[in-house]
Amino acid sequence: MTWSRNFCVSHMAMAAAETAMWPQVPQVYQIYRIWQLIRGCYLVGQIGGPQWLWTLHAMLIMLWVFNFGAVMTWTPWLYRWHLQPQSSENGRKDGYTNGHKTE
Length: 103
Hints:
By secondary structure, the chain is mainly α.
């Protein structure tokens, strides 16, 4: 079984179970993909590969970093943070709210 197939199976299992971890699976995958592309750039440079191949890897790294940033901006909506009630004390018991002492 390949790594990508394992990724799909684990992603489906976490999404079906509605665990708190399922939105993080694509983010971990994207970090791994960026790491693979960076390693590819080093390999092309070390073996003296063509310049166009190094340029292609660099462009793909930029694309995947942009994509990763877009996915990170979706995280609050995936966790539905905007639907959670706002607490006046944010769960603190020491009398501080947002850095200010409450009376």
